[in-house]
């Protein structure tokens, strides 16, 4: 802990103060000035292991998430997950059976719709029925198109833009 700046060392010592207000203040300051500091992370994790006051434990966990540096891999280093590892891709690939009421002929029925399709044909009158596509993680995933296939991916994105 000697590698830490003096102000962080003092704040970490205050983590074990009897007064919960002092501890809370120390945690807030560490969250403000400790970004990316591995020694502060270790000290906070140790504090979590010892502290019994629930509110301070919650605040310490939040502080850890504030100071943790998350380095995101470039898209070319991501590996395509298996189909059963990615729930977003699985939902896009799956065919759903949904209950529908046609807005044109008002008949109730069921439809078999692929997860990436935002419109389908009414079996009674033959007109198109539009549906809202829910947001999926594949929109933000750098390998999303590889998971579901380029054609499905483009149809999904087009359907999301229309809703």
Describe the structure.
The chain has 163 residues and is α+β, with helices and mostly antiparallel strands. The chain has two domains: 6-67, Leucine-rich Repeat Variant, CATH 1.25.10; 76-162, no CATH class. The chain has helices spanning 6-13, 20-33, 38-50, 54-67, 87-93, 144-148, 150-162, and strands at residues 95-101, 108-114, 119-121, 128-130. It has a two-stranded antiparallel sheet with strand order 1-2. A two-stranded antiparallel sheet has the order 3-4.
SSE blueprint:
Elements lengths: L5 H8 L6 H14 L4 H13 L3 H14 L19 H7 L1 E7 L6 E7 L4 E3 L6 E3 L13 H5 L1 H13 L1
Antiparallel strand pairs: 1-2, 3-4
Helix pairs in contact: 2-4, 3-4
Summarize the structure.
With 163 residues, the chain is of the alpha+beta class. It has seven helices and four strands. The chain has helices at residues 6-13, 20-33, 38-50, 54-67, 87-93, 144-148, 150-162; strands at residues 95-101, 108-114, 119-121, 128-130.
Give the percentage of residues in beta strands.
5-15%
Q: Which class of secondary structure composition applies to the elements?
A: alpha+beta
End-to-end span in angstroms?
54 Å
Could you estimate the helical fraction of the residues in percent? 40-55%
Apparent shape: elongated
Low-confidence spans: pLDDT under 50, at least 5 residues?
Answer: none
Sheet with the most strands, sense and barrel status: 2 strands, antiparallel
What are the main properties of this structure?
4 strands, two-stranded antiparallel ribbon, 163 residues, 45% helix, alpha+beta, Leucine-rich Repeat Variant
């Amino acid at each position: 802990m000697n590698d830490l700046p003096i102000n962080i060392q003092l704040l970490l010592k205050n983590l074990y103060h009897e007064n919960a207000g002092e501890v809370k203040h120390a945690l807030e300051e560490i969250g403000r000035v400790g970004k990316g500091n591995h020694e502060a992370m270790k000290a906070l994790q140790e504090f979590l292991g010892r502290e019994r006051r629930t509110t301070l434990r919650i605040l310490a966990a939040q502080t850890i998430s504030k100071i943790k540096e998350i380095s995101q891999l470039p898209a070319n280093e991501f590996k395509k997950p298996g189909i059963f590892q990615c729930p977003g891709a699985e939902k896009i690939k799956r065919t759903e059976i949904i209950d529908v009421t046609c807005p044109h002929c008002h008949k109730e029925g069921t439809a078999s719709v692929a997860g990436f399709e935002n419109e389908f044909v009414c079996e009674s009158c033959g007109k198109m029925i539009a549906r809202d596509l829910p947001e999926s993680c594949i929109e933000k995933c750098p390998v999303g198109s590889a998971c579901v296939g380029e054609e499905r991916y483009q149809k999904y994105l087009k359907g999301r833009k229309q809703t």
